[in-house]
Amino acid sequence: MIGRKTIIMVAVIIIFFAVPVVFWAQTRSEPRDDPWSKVEKKPSKTNHSNLFEATEFKDGPAVTKACLKCHPGSAKEIMQTSHWT
Hints:
This protein is mainly alpha-helical and 85 residues long. It has helices at 4-27, 60-70, 74-78.
């Protein structure tokens, strides 16, 4: 048989966990701020769509080779950024 102390302890534990959850759920009613709304939108410098056909490349390395034809120094530049290291 479950004693009175056990029932009280279980009730205290349930209240201990339920009260913070209820308060937390109520504080989340307003929407969060979108961090991307503060990032400046930069226009594309060059539209490359008139230079290449979309179906011209069979894989990623083929695209890279085409880019390096017009931008030969880009390979060394990218290796100096956090994208590479």
